[in-house]
TrEMBL record:
Family to which the UniProt record says this protein belongs: Belongs to the SufE family.
Pfam families (alphabetical): SufE
Organism: Cryobacterium cheniae
InterPro entries in UniProt: Fe-S_metab-assoc_dom (IPR003808)
Domain Fe-S metabolism associated per the UniProt entry, residue ranges: 16-138
This protein's name: SufE family protein
Length: 145
């Protein structure tokens, strides 16, 4: 899958970032942080179902599910004091929501490097987002087995 073949929502998110000056990209990331969807009660009431993303500096927990219509949903939680991490989780949660298992698996592993934030945030933060995407894909592969 090439960058032009990204699922529409992820392509739109990437394009939104790339259209901005580098300094304004952090502001957009903060907007995403504020838009991280809340956990549905079935996960909020059972945090033990969520998996820690240990590669992230901040405590990020996530769960990937495939619904009865074969649509993928990524649920994540991250502290408000960690807006970069929350923003990355929100981008993935919103960008992958409703895609098929195969569409998510086809997202390039380096997607986090393509949204224009590699100079604005630390490499460690980008690796955290890359780890979230990799963990999502791993969960989907395990579920397909």
């Amino acid at each position: 899958m090439t960058a032009t073949e990204l699922p529409p929502k992820l392509a739109e998110i990437r394009d939104d970032f790339l259209e901005l000056e580098e300094s304004d990209r952090l502001l957009l990331l903060l907007e995403f942080a504020d838009e991280l969807p809340t956990l549905p009660p079935r996960y909020a009431d059972h945090p033990d179902l969520l998996e820690r993303v240990v590669e992230c500096q901040s405590p990020v927990f996530m769960f990937v599910e495939v619904d009865d219509d074969s649509a993928v949903h990524l649920y994540a939680t991250a502290p408000r004091e960690s807006p970069t991490t929350r923003g990355f989780a929100s981008i993935l949660s919103q960008g992958l929501d409703g895609l098929s298992r195969q569409e998510v698996l086809d997202v390039p592993d380096d997607y986090p490097n393509t949204i224009g934030l590699t100079k604005a945030v630390s490499p460690l933060r980008i690796r955290g987002m890359t780890a979230m995407l990799a963990r999502t894909k791993r969960r989907l592969r395990e579920g397909a087995a």
